[in-house]
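Reopening this one. Same input as before:
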Amino acid sequence: DFDIAIKMDVTLRASYSVTNKYLVTIDGESQYVLHGEKLSQPANMPTKSSTESHNYEFVGWGYEVNGETRIWNFNTDMVTSNLVLTAQFDAKEKGKFTVTFDFNNGEAPLEIEVYDGAKIKSEQIPAEPVKPETQTEKYTFVAWINTYSEMEFDFDIAIKMDVTLRASYSV
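Same output, byte for byte:
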């Protein structure tokens, strides 16, 4: 109390408490946070682009503990050390569809699998089939016909269902 008159020698000591600040990095953005504080969840949910075979679903913000990734709980977890949180995703394999190439020449059909939403790759397309000649007719391959639409198949279109492609020939 500094309002009391001092009548003898007095030693004053400062009393203070230490408040630790920790560096917290979320998705590459860093900030200092006080010990024991809860974090606010980032407003934007991160996304990860799909690949030909997988879609990715955001599952939370992860951090490493002894080589194991754990998901941060923004409702209960508190900062007690420096922390790096990175977006964690669960990979979900896309479904597959069957594309059947009917050579329309007596050969057994060729079946390939294509991921949902993918295009048939050029290396998956069989070589132009050959239809045996008869005594009166010679056949020339023209195109692959989608048996569902009865139209020439466009290989730039993504596969969204099972498809049968039949070889078409001119005489």
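So the earlier flakiness isn't reproducible anymore. For the record, The two ends are 112 Å apart (CA to CA).
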